[in-house]
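Pilot study result, target chain (249 residues):
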Amino acid sequence: MPRIIAVTYVRMGSERLPGKMLREVAGKPMLAHLIDRMRRVRDINGVTVATSVQPENDAIAQLCKDAGVSCFRGSEEDVLGRVLGALEHERAEIGVIAYGDGPLIDPALMDECLKTLLSDATLQLVGNDMKASYPSGMYAEAFKVGALRDAAARTDDPVMHEHATLFLRQHPEFFKAVNIEAQGKLRRPDIHLDVDTEEDFRVITAIAEHFAPRGDFTLAEILAYMDEHPEITTLNTDVPRRWKRYQQN
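Predicted structure:
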């Protein structure tokens, strides 16, 4: 088996909800929830957090130390370089991304991306975020670190460097990528479980507090709960999602 590392990239300087990663949800910081979920991914050799060298992120580094996970610090703007640096520091051959704005990611979705990548040697990237089928906040990707290194060398475009795997996704002439689409009851692109605003934070808090002290609840359980409580679902329905511009129709 190749060396597989789960990675997330976070920082304190969120434009719409500053400091969100350390805001408490059901008794612990949002980032701690995310780390706990990432640790449940099968076949990984470790978890790392990629943050920036800005002093305000010292608190993130301290949380990682307390949680016993690696923390790599790099450029604030160059997310591609920061993620690549974190994975190279951990000697990873395969990376599995969970996004920092999705603290309740279902580890099974990360498992599925990783399993698909490992099943086909011709693939460089597998994600469930290239088309809208899963709820946002449940997006994951698995990719070969060598491909990410190649992408970093091929482009100086700041937009590509702001989004870790975007170059892999947008250049099929160099990299083979596939998207996993949600099936059945999990196909709910109308639901938003990512945290960009105060409204999003209220949604995540309601979910986490409902299931507390459990930390292993699944996407199916979350969706069932939200369907029983439509007043929670509608809290963030109208929040603009900047990442939509990078998804296929």
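One observation from the pilot: Residues 101 and 195 are 5 Å apart (CA to CA). A full batch analysis is planned for the follow-on phase.
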